[in-house]
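Problem 3 from the worked examples.
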Amino acid sequence: MNKDIKPATIAAHAAGAIDPQSGGVVPALQPSTTYLRDKGYDLVRQDNVYSRADSDNLRQAEEVLRRLENAEETFLFPSGMAAIAAVFRTLPNGATAVVQSGIYWGTSAWTREFCARREINLVEVDADDLLATCNSAKPALVFIETPSNPWLKTVDIRAIANATSATLVVDATAATPVLTRSLEFGADIVMHSATKGINGHSDVLAGVLSTNAKGAAIWEMIRDDRKMAGAILGPFEAWLLTRAMRTLPLRVERMSQNAQALAEYLLAHDAVDDVFYPGLPSHKGHEIAKKQMSGGFGSLLSVLVKGSKEDALRVVGKLQLFLRATSLGGVESLVEHRHTIEPHTGIPENLIRVSVGIEDIGDLVADWDQALT
């Protein structure tokens, strides 16, 4: 496949994956944990020894993601948090890590515990203060999330990359590689929870790291750690992920269109105080988002309804098409009252996080219309 082939084509063809044994246009699922040797005890295939490091299904999924990200190398992990942990485990004791605050709570909670245990100096800072902090703290690692979850804050990746010599890691889960190729804006490593929009069907748990610094020391440490610690995605999950990614650009396009229309509708509604969505001109990070998001602004938005916690819960309870469940990026629309889930994070009691799916936008708007009245 030529290098100039577009993401939609890469995804639809699963980066050229087929089943050479049968000639099938769909890659086969190979669940074996170990591989055959001949009578002389040579491997039948030199690249397959043991499934903790060797899996055709894993390689196929990684190749699709690598091509979509325009990266030199991509590694899949059994969850997004496993991917994040692999990055932070490269830090030596005494190092400094700057981490954006107000991001996915699982990341914040884990990094706090890990850095305290490892005597790593953790500096958590708001998106607006990242540039100044990177200049003053002299970190070894900078970790940002754009757009952030659930505040939808947008960080200028290139500006941060230019402001620090530290390893810059970008969690671009809400954007997916379809909308933002973080490496092209100066990130050293881009991370996604592939559980979310990349898979998009709420049936696979996976994480991914990609880089254009294949030979860098930190990347080789991640490679070795993944293999020896066994943080490997299973072949069935990798096969499902490859299957799902064939429609990734189509899903992202539809979700972004739906989210944009819903955000505009909600912002104009009398029962809504504010809407956080990068696609809105009123959004603080809109201009940055326009520079580094191409083809839409993603499926995630947050809504501040007028009133109290009880008013927000009433709206959530009345929604019929938006399923009350945790996660984002699936084909089905989801809604979550964040304060109920994470009251300790200071999230407003009237904030509702919304993951917009691929349903008919008229139906989605009508559902919110009846819920807000």
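Problem 4, a separate protein:
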Amino acid sequence: MFRILPAFFVLLIAGQSFAQGYKADFDKVLEENDTAAQRQLLYKWQQTSPKDAELFIARFNYYFLASRKEIVQFTNDADKSSAFEVKDSTGAETVGYLGDQVEYDQSLLKKAFKSIDSGISAWPARLDMRFGKIYALGQLENYEAFTKEIINTIEVANKLKNNWQWTAHQKLDAPEKFMLGNIQSYVVQLYNVGDDQLTRMRRIAQAVLKYYPRHVESLSNLAITYGLQGNYDKALEALLKAEKIMPQDAIVLNNIATMYERKGDRSNAIRYFELTAKHGDQNAKSEAAKKLKELKN
């Protein structure tokens, strides 16, 4: 159901048939992590082609990567899966953990975002620039700016009638589907952060539904935000709209059943778990059968 967008930098430096001139040279020195060569090339590029869309992206990559610093930090509370455990002198007790922490140079970040914002202003139909900025904001865990940029992209999509372009001004196949699929991956990213992101998830879902009222994933997202806050009636309102659009979607049906169960509406919960069992895959059938057994006893 979810389409995950690959890392922004991978998308930008991947080999392309059009990779010629400055962009090809920059991609090479970026992969080699040759920052001196990157600076020299950006200077020459700026002198000869200051409005080149790929220059804005290259400069953004340069400053964003330069701003990122990994430091080793000692802490009493660390993710044991990624941190080195430090024992006392006897080796019997854990006294703390050594782990990597990423910090960012704010002055370099400011230059990175100034470049990508200038690029977006000059080339408003370049969706790769917008997604690159969103990706970076997610890396920074600046989820408010992340959310606002997603919503702004949805608004611009309406103005442009989804006539999006990608790297080298290539037109996208099925641009609406592509955009919405990747926005869905950003919503999943927010969901994985925690319940404190529910309001932001809701704002994105509402922005999508303003222009795409039949977008089932956003109806489901909206329902999730209400359901997790205990507002089962509002959750069901969205889910029942989704059911009308996709009446045999097992995920939608299971979510409706779950909301009815939490609401205490046993008869409707049974009805929708039965529909889930009818239309779902083997795993959905098995889980629905367990629920039906509980509800019918």
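Solution to problem 4. Strands lie at 68-75, 84-87, 94-104. The radius of gyration is 24 Å.
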